[in-house]
Every structure is written in C-alpha cells, then in structure tokens.
Write a structure and sequence with these properties.
Largest sheet: none
Number of domains: 2
Shape: globular
Order of helices and strands: HHHHHH
Radius of gyration: 21 Å
C-alpha cells in the first residue's frame, strides 16, 4: 500500500502472508475496536466522526465474522494469485515500484529476493486449504502453470534470449546510463 501511495517505507519488502500474521492482525483489530468502544462516547461525536466510528466498527465486525472462512477462497487461480501479483506490482503501468536512485534499485532487487519467502507462505496457505478440500477446479492448473512459465522464460532463467518481463522492466527503470552495468 505504501508503494502504491508513492511512499518508500519498507520499499524492499513484501507483505507478510503468513497465517500467524493474519491472526495477529485480527487480534490488533479486536483490541482497537474494544478501545474505540471503551474510550469514545459515540453520542458526543460530531456527524462525520460518528460515520468514521461506525465504518471502522462495521469493518472489524465483518472481519471477525468472516475470519473463520478465510481459507475458503482460492489462493491461486487463473485470474489471480502471487504468480500475477508480483509481476503486475513491479511492472505496473502506474509504476508502483519506482527506481530513481540506487537504493530504489537495491530495494527492487530485495523484493525479488523476498519472493521465495512469500511463495512459501502462499504454499502454506494452499496446504491449509487443500486440507479443507478447497482446491481450484482442474481447468485452472494448466492456465496457472502457463502463466508461471511465461514469467520464468528468458534471461536470467535462461542463458540466452530475451529478458524476462521483470528484468526488462528493471532495466527500463534504471536511473542512469551507467546503471545497466551489472544488471545481467
């Protein structure tokens, strides 16, 4: 979200997709809702603040209500998943991960180095879902595998040929003519 807003906070990191993080976020939201109800007298709030109060309250109530069903969606499918989110985030036309100086390029590379951890977390979530019998339909798998093959086709995954879309994007985003050195 920070990168989407143009902020470079934790620029080289991906969100934590682990089950532990989801549980921790739920607990934080429950504590915040409890604090809201305990520390603010709704009747004394102005109309705009009352609306904000109710929106937050309803948002957390829905999160609590739906939390037991968080594993009931498809984590990866032909329409989306980590295999589409990573390239689209990095290559996005609105340029979510901008590279205007060396540290931005290093953060871009750090994001790429963080992909295996994120994929491991997604695999854990897939295993949880599979254990509950929540598996995409058979026709989805060949499409997802084709998408993944497309991401991994080219340099640096192959010794010759065109750059992968992510490497080509990185080269385009480089911040100066000398920055191409060492990008292969």
């Amino acid at each position: 979200m920070a990168a989407s807003l143009g902020l470079k906070t934790d620029y080289g990191l991906w969100n934590d997709h682990s089950e532990a993080k989801q549980i921790a976020e739920l607990e934080i939201n429950i504590r915040n809702l409890s604090r809201l109800r305990r520390e603010f007298d709704y009747d004394k709030l102005d109309p705009d603040t009352k609306l904000s109060y109710r929106l937050f309250e309803r948002s957390v109530e829905r999160l609590i209500e739906w939390f037991p069903f968080r594993h009931h969606g498809y984590q990866v499918n032909h329409l989306g998943g980590v295999h589409k989110r990573v390239p689209s985030f990095l290559i996005n036309l609105i340029n979510r991960h901008r590279v205007s100086e060396r540290k931005d390029a290093e953060a871009y590379i750090a994001r790429l180095e963080g992909v295996p951890r994120m994929i491991d977390q997604i695999i854990e979530r897939l295993v949880l879902r599979a254990g509950k019998g929540i598996i995409p339909l058979r026709f989805v798998f060949p499409q997802v595998l084709e998408d993944i093959d497309n991401i991994l086709t080219g340099v640096p995954f192959e010794t010759a040929g065109k750059d992968t879309a992510i490497l080509a994007d990185f080269r385009k985003k480089s911040f100066g003519p000398s920055s191409h050195a060492g990008c292969s």
